[in-house]
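can u do me a favor
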């Protein structure tokens, strides 16, 4: 089957290539003048990085594997500084390229390393998780975490191309696969209800990489993301819809010292946002129930500790959608009808949390 190519518009348009066994397309995404390629990958995935380096060497590039800590531990300033030193050692110039190979944590780090090296070199992303393919590797949000909050340091730096080889999904740990489904379901609620129909029709199939609709789910979510970031790279307005569920999600991740899967936190955050919208008189109870049913049907959590609320409330203040002291949420006025809720009062925030508390 031919790979799908989803175009992302903008100042420098690029393609997201989706297919099985598509690694041979990588050299074609590097641009004309590259010589040295830094292949940033999770240290636990050398067997995934090796064929990437081999494909690059075969095409005449000097490929250098740069292992970084696994998962969220990569998104730290010390790791970023280590990459800068490696780039210097390799003599990376402005025409050279960073390739990010791994999950969203690795591609967020690799993207920010590319954005900051020499004030910006090309980055090509090779996501190897479901979440990386449908969300993190597309759209150019790059960055790292600090103790004070999630993704607080970063840059908008769109990739030169994104290569999604669906074969990589076959080796993914089940819980990480499920985490990626949360972002797919998010795309369903904010923009493409067919995604919800597909998951609801066969949740067991949706929860497996060899399920009948995997490629369609990936393509649909990528199209939602591409459409939005192509129109609003720097989150002037429209792009905020991709942040649905993330205000509470990022607070949960911080509370868990970044050891809680992103998608799992987003699932709880979406139910919270849905409850906020219901209590504000904007979303039907049936649509809120649909959040809980579709998320739980694939094994995602929809509740969090009751006593965590004061800490979560404090952490939500630093959300990037806030303006001054005004907290802003993406909420739904119906499925595929995203809106904003600005400055909700404290009782509403707490009441919505009681609905997700356990
Ligand atoms: N930039 C964005 O727009 C954006 C969007 C969504 C999420 N994110 C970020 O993405 C991160 C989450 O990404 P994630 O869910 O991919 O987690 P992750 O990067 O932590 O990867 C999850 C685990 O899967 C392993 N893994 C990766 N590919 C594998 C494979 N093919 N086979 C076996 N194991 C594999 C990783 O080593 C890791 O242990 C978070 O930091 C989140 O903030 C960013
Ligand atoms: O691409 C976006 O824009 C998103 O908001 C996608 C989110 O899924 C993603 O988790 C993103 O990293 C969150 O961004 P942040 O600006 O809230 O850190
Ligand atoms: Zn996310």
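np, heres the sequence
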């Amino acid at each position: 089957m031919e790979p799908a190519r989803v175009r992302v518009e903008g100042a420098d348009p690029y393609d997201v290539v989706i297919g099985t066994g598509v690694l041979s397309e990588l050299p074609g995404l590097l641009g004309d003048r590259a010589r040295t390629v830094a292949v940033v990958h999770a240290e636990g995935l050398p067997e995934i990085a090796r064929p990437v380096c081999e494909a690059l060497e075969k095409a005449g590039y000097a490929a250098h594997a740069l292992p970084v800590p696994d998962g969220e531990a990569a998104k730290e300033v010390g790791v970023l500084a280590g990459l800068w030193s490696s780039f210097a050692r390799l003599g990376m110039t402005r025409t050279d390229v960073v390739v990010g190979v791994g999950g969203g944590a690795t591609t967020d780090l690799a993207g920010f390393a590319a954005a900051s090296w020499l004030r910006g070199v090309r980055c090509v992303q090779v996501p190897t998780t479901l979440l990386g393919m449908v969300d993190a590797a597309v759209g150019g949000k790059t960055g790292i975490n600090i103790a004070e909050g999630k993704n607080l340091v970063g840059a908008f730096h769109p990739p030169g191309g994104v290569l999604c080889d669906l074969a990589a999904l076959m080796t993914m740990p089940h819980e990480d696969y499920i985490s990626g489904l949360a972002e797919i379901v998010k795309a369903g609620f904010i923009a493409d209800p067919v995604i919800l129909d597909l998951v609801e029709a066969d949740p067991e199939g949706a929860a497996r990489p060899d399920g009948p609709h995997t490629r369609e789910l990936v393509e649909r979510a990528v199209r939602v993301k591409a459409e939005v970031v192509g129109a609003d790279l720097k989150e002037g307005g429209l792009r905020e819809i991709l942040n649905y569920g993330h205000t509470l999600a990022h607070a949960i991740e911080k509370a868990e010292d970044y050891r809680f899967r992103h998608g799992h936190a987003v699932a709880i955050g979406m139910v919270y946002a849905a409850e906020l919208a219901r209590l504000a008189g904007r979303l039907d109870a049936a649509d809120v129930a649909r959040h809980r049913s579709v998320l739980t049907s694939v094994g995602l959590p929809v509740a969090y500790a009751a006593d965590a609320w004061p800490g979560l409330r404090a952490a939500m203040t630093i959300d990037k959608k806030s303006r001054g002291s005004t907290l802003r949420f993406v909420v739904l006025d119906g499925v595929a009808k995203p809106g904003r809720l600005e400055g909700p009062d404290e009782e509403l925030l707490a009441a919505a949390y009681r609905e997700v508390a356990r």
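The chain has two domains: 4-171, 174-356. hope that helps!!
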